[in-house]
Amino acid sequence: MGPTAVDTAVRDGDAASREFVRAAPPPGGGVVSAVGYRSRGRRPALHRGLPSPYLTLIFSLDGPVTTGRTPAEATGPDAVRTDIVVGGLHQSPAYVVQPEHEAGIQLAVHPLAARALLGLPAAELAGQLVTDGTDVLGRIAADVRERLCEQDAWSDRFAFLNAYLARRAADAERAGAVRPEVGEAWAWLARHRGAGTLRGLSAHVALSERRLSALFRAETGVTPKQAARLMRFQHAKAAVVRAVAAGTRPDLARIAADRGYYDHSHLVRDFQQYTGLSPSAWVAEECRNIQAGGHGGGEDWDV
Question: HTH araC/xylS-type domain: from which residue to which, for each copy (predicted)?
């Protein structure tokens, strides 16, 4: 995430603008993607934060990030508002209020890097939609955010954040190590893009299905089957995004077959669970964001 790794920003409009700047993730695999974003002059809206195989870490460079499990919660008095967002793995969309102007850096963090970068196993984040970053990272995270706000260039922000995360990783012993069986299980699921079976996975790591599921969930907060579904959906969604970005209509039947779904209907059911919409409705809602470069990030990197 150094200064030379920053992509060219994408902007649209004159009165209203959106800007997305991506940086190649640093070595080590802990951070899967890093995206800087800024918008201004836009009509306030509600965004769906979709489930993925990654944890979410956001440093807002503007006002607090406002989220909820439902549209009513996100726009009501029970919404969660925090300047630093830490989010675990989840199975349904999170709703994020997008104000007239916003800015920040969003990282996708590998769940098995949670101990090194966040200081706890990913499973400890599973009970809540969003956790205040200072509760996880400590008060120094607020100082990091303040320094990020003071930087003028995206390259400087990414470099500073990279250095901060490297220091945390260097002190990773404080949170213990991931069991090798869990690490290998995740790698096996990733190689199969979520299409492998639990029986095949348990045989590969030489554990019973029950024992493997218990260890996996204790580390990540999800079962191997849930992780596999998230991976498969991530790859399918990435294929949809690439088609839309290229100006073509996604071939959902082909995408379903190529990504390990039983059929087109199976893919549609996963879309409905993870987005709350059909694939076509989700594309219609997100089309402008996709064309402006607002999707990508983790979809371009192996899980």
Answer: 197-285
Cα 112 to Cα 90: distance, rounded to the nearest angstrom? 15
Give the list of residues 6+ apart from residue 43 with CB closer than 8 angstroms, or none: 16, 100
Residue 278 to residue 272: CA distance in whole angstroms: 5
- pLDDT value at 295 more than 70: no
Spatial contact of 245 and 261, defined as CB atoms under 8 Å apart: no
Out of 62-66, 142-146, 175-179, 187-191, which region has the weakest mean confidence (pLDDT)?
175-179
CB atoms inside a 10 Å sphere around CB 286? 21
pLDDT of residue 170: 86
Sheet holding 17-23, edge to edge: 17-23, 31-40, 102-109, 55-60, 84-87, 131-132
Beta bridge partners of 183: none
What angle is formed at CA 170 by the lines to CA 27 and CA 21, rounded to 5 degrees? 40
Identify the bridge partners of residue 103 per DSSP, sorted by sequence position: 38
User: How far apart, in whole angstroms, are the C-alpha atoms of residue 161 and residue 9?
Assistant: 19
pLDDT at 293 over 70: no
Average the pLDDT over 181-200 and give the result. 96
Q: How far apart are CA 43 and CA 107, in angstroms?
A: 25
Cβ–Cβ under 8 Å, residues 235 and 259: yes
Residues 6+ away with beta carbon under 8 Å from 248: none
Residue 76 identity (one-letter amino acid): G
Q: Cα–Cα distance between 42 and 17 in angstroms, integer? A: 7
Give this prediction's pTM.
Answer: 0.90
8 Å CB contact between 266 and 273: no
